[in-house]
What does this fold into?
Amino acid sequence: MPEIMHKGSHPAINVAVVGHTNTGKTSLIRTLLRDDQFGEIEDLAGTTRYVEKSTIFCADDAVLDLFDTPGFEDSSALLQALDELSKTLHARMPADLLHAFIAQADAFPDFEQEIKVLRQAINSDVLLYIICGIVMGSWILPLYSIVTYAAGSKTVDFIVDGLDSAKAAMIITTHPDEIARAVSEEFGTGLTIIDAHGFYSDTPKTVLYVVVNRFQTVKLKTLVKGVDANAYMAISPVADLLHGSKEEETA
It folds into this structure.
């Protein structure tokens, strides 16, 4: 069975690149990715008609998901349409108004492209509005903003989780006793043995549950595979541990 590994404790940051038509959104993403094949670039306005995604990795971790979006074709008319819609709703927050506008997309056929942009925007963590680069004559400031956001997010993770954060491993194996003995002797920790039943195989299975620190996960995988090459593993982060009535932070 394939091994499942959770590389990071948090998903990648979603960055939506938005702006008017023909402001260089796709060109910017090509520069970031160093990929001149991403998207489509032409002199005509409105070349990008759909939202396209690409991911930036740091080692094996996905840190940024970049979304290239269609351009706003008529921002003034869009603002007017939103203003008119707001008079018929009791939306408390701007996001509620945008959700209502997107939900009524069929009633606004002239804003097909803008609705694609808005839909992606409300599902993203960061918006990079391309007009910034045009007005300032440089992409440095908006790009530094993204880097700062990503670095800040990782720093917060480190402060909250600590360097020695815990990992929980669920191991499905046909050699539970051998693996449990090897893990216990190596890490000096206990394991929980759970009787289970395979749905597709319709056969009895045994699940081992163990918590180790992040630096022990590589050794754990090596130990398990050394005993049972077909073992199924799922490794996930642990926020905190509870021993009886005493709570222990993993940091």
Remarks:
- The chain has two domains: 7-74+110-159, 163-249.
